[in-house]
Write a structure and sequence with these properties.
Blueprint (H helix, E strand, L loop, with lengths): L20 H20 L9 H34 L4 H11 L2 H16 L3 H9 L2 H5 L1 H11 L5 H12 L2 H14 L2 E5 L2 E5 L11 H17 L1 H22 L5 H6 L4 H14 L1 H14 L26 H15 L1 H12 L3 E2 L11 E5 L4 E5 L6 H20 L11 H4 L1 H17 L3 H36 L6 H15 L13 H4 L13 H17 L5 H11 L5 H9 L6 H24 L8
């Protein structure tokens, strides 16, 4: 008899329900704790004094406990709010907990400046005086590095206050404009108003894709001038600070991702040398859908004639079974974890009204557990999402016994376990598939991801780099921003699309350019994607790879990106060897796609 897996998660064992008085007491207690910590965070400089070392160690113990409590309560409330989107109590607690942010920021800022005051020699003695400090040395060294990207304390506090109505205000303005935007599209002879997210470029009918693309761009063009103002002022605010600090516009994003410029340059250079195979894939896809050259609105188009068993309705029980089996084939530990998480009701997948859109995995640190939120609608994509989120949960599971201050990992390492888990499932399904049509469709989806990470994200990086370079000399017009975007796309996509098939207004429609707290919200995606592919390729050659992979996941919380890869797998990501292993996987998939496309009849054009 097949397993029957639960569709809803279990939250009651974590904390009292947010609608109870007991939960109110927990939130009030946390607020008092954070206020007390903020008041005590004016610590003495980290010097070679035993009394100072003890003071710091005791403070960090309190800080770690408070961080654990805050992150766990925040995750718990977020779970309730996602599952019952209309509940006002849950919404109110989300807002209340987010308001604790300034207290946490004050504590972190004070820590950074106190660490910055110490010399290297004093810091060495400081770590040696208390084993609790030595244990979280990486956290403290990273915090000290963050201080180098801050203005003098009084100026930093003033800048933070001014950013509420400056940098962050421009970001909020974009959120409001894009949120209110409506696209007029024709459906069944009538004009229908839709939000941009509802306008799809995945229709099998090319005329529908093209009309949707131009309808969406017409709407985005209406707010382009105001968005240009927002983008100029967001980038200009950053550049003003960088100029005073004497650093370039990549210093902050590289620090946030714990990686060097040398690594970033090597990654992009190696991609540039190898990604011509993706141009071959895109040319073949154009041939399969019956056009001379693809346009932007064709990139997500389905291949004609590839419907089959992969499109049939998939039960949740079967999706869980396939995922568990694929994980277990790679690592019994990963397979056992997936079964445990599913059976112990860590996952909410029920397709019902009243839930929020999207999916996430959140860590409840105080309980050593995670919770996964999604809505399963019986598709293969839904199964991939399940595998992806289980990968995130496994990452937290492996780190659960580490000190809380060594469990945080940067954006470029955050997607490793999740993307790796998707790769395990995808390759398992690809190997087991008996239908050439299904294999071709799966390879098309995989290579669509490769285009996104190696071409689309590269175009965003090139645009961001050009924007910040030119913005140092003055504001850019909407027309100039579109020119930079079109040029970046041509370079990143190897000029493979049709002459009129580019998307110059992409800078208006892509939210990532307007995120105030995360400059260059692009290259970490490519880094994480290639990291997961490279580690997956290593799994084929190492019998003890699952243990190595666990060691790497632990290292993501306590090492730089370069050190984590070097200590776990022996590769220096400042050199091209590792990236070439990753790109070998992409090239192999392109070869498989081209071979199948040449032998499988997929029809001629669509639309």
């Amino acid at each position: 008899m097949a397993d029957s897996f639960p569709l809803t998660w279990e939250l009651d064992s974590l904390y009292p329900n947010p609608e109870t008085a007991e939960f109110r007491e927990l939130v009030d207690k946390l607020r008092a704790t954070l206020q007390s910590l903020a008041g005590d965070s004016e610590l003495p400089a980290a010097t070679d004094s035993e009394d100072v070392a003890v003071t710091w160690a005791e403070f960090l113990d309190r800080y770690a406990t408070a961080l654990s409590d805050f992150s766990s309560l925040n995750a718990f409330v977020g779970c309730h709010a996602a599952a019952d989107a209309a509940n006002k109590t849950f919404q109110r607690y989300e807002g209340e907990l987010s308001a604790f942010g300034p207290l946490l920021a004050e504590i972190q800022t004070n820590l950074e400046f106190a660490l910055q005051e110490a010399s290297d020699a004093q810091l060495e003695s400081f770590f040696a005086m208390d084993e609790r400090l030595a244990e979280v040395r990486f956290f403290l060294e990273t915090a000290r590095g963050s201080a180098a990207l801050r203005l003098p304390k009084e100026q930093e506090l003033l800048a933070a206050d001014l950013s509420v109505d400056g940098l962050h205000a421009w970001s909020r303005l974009y959120d409001r404009l894009s949120g209110e935007l409506r696209v007029s599209v024709m459906e069944r002879g009538e004009v229908v108003e839709k939000s941009p997210g509802q306008v799809s470029l995945e229709s099998p009918e090319r005329s529908v894709r093209e009309n949707n693309f131009f309808a969406a761009n017409k709407a985005w063009a209406n707010i382009a001038e105001t968005c240009a103002d927002a983008l100029n002022h967001i980038s200009g605010s950053r550049l003003s600070k960088y100029r005073r600090l004497g650093v370039d516009h990549l210093a902050a994003p590289l620090h946030l991702n714990r990686m060097t410029r040398e690594t970033l340059d090597t990654m992009w250079r190696t991609i540039g040398e190898r990604k011509s195979c993706l141009a071959d894939y895109l040319r073949k896809k154009a041939e399969l859908i019956g056009v001379d050259r693809l346009a932007w609105w064709d990139l997500q188009a389905p291949l004609p004639g590839t419907s089959g068993e992969s499109d049939s309705k998939l039960s949740y029980d079967k999706a869980c079974g396939l995922t568990i089996d694929a994980f277990a084939d790679f690592s019994p530990k990963l397979g056992d974890f997936a079964r445990m998480a599913i059976e112990n009701r860590w996952i909410e997948v029920e397709d019902r009204p009243g839930k929020r859109q999207g999916g996430f995995c959140t860590d409840v640190a105080t309980r050593g557990q995670s919770r996964i939120f999604m809505t399963f609608t019986g598709t293969v994509d839904g199964m991939s999402t399940l595998a992806h989120e289980l990968g995130h949960a496994y990452h937290s599971f492996v780190l659960r016994d580490r000190p809380l201050l060594l469990r945080d990992y940067p954006m470029n390492l955050a997607e490793t376990a999740s993307t790796f888990a998707e790769a395990v499932l995808g390759e398992n399904r690809l190997a087991a598939s008996e239908s050439p049509h299904a294999r071709l469709k799966m390879l098309d989806q995989m290579l669509g991801d490769a285009v996104a990470f190696l071409m689309n994200i590269h175009a965003r990086f090139l645009f961001d780099d050009a924007l910040h370079t030119e913005r140092a000399s003055g504001e850019l017009s909407a027309e100039r921003l579109s020119e930079l975007m079109a040029g970046s796309q041509r370079q990143a996509y190897l000029d493979v699309l049709s002459d009129d098939g580019w998307n110059p207004l992409f800078w208006v429609s892509k939210l990532h350019f307007y995120i105030a707290d995360w400059p260059f919200y692009n290259f970490p995606y490519t880094f994480g994607y290639l990291l997961s592919l490279g580690t997956y390729s290593l799994a084929q050659d190492a019998a003890d790879f699952p243990a190595q992979f666990d060691e790497f996941l632990v290292a993501t919380g306590s090492q730089t990106a370069e050190s984590a890869v070097q200590s776990s797998f022996g590769y220096d990501v400042r050199e091209p060897d590792f990236w070439n292993r990753s790109l070998d996987v992409v090239e192999s998939r392109v070869s498989q796609f081209l071979e199948l496309a040449n032998t499988v009849s997929t029809g001629t054009g669509v639309g």
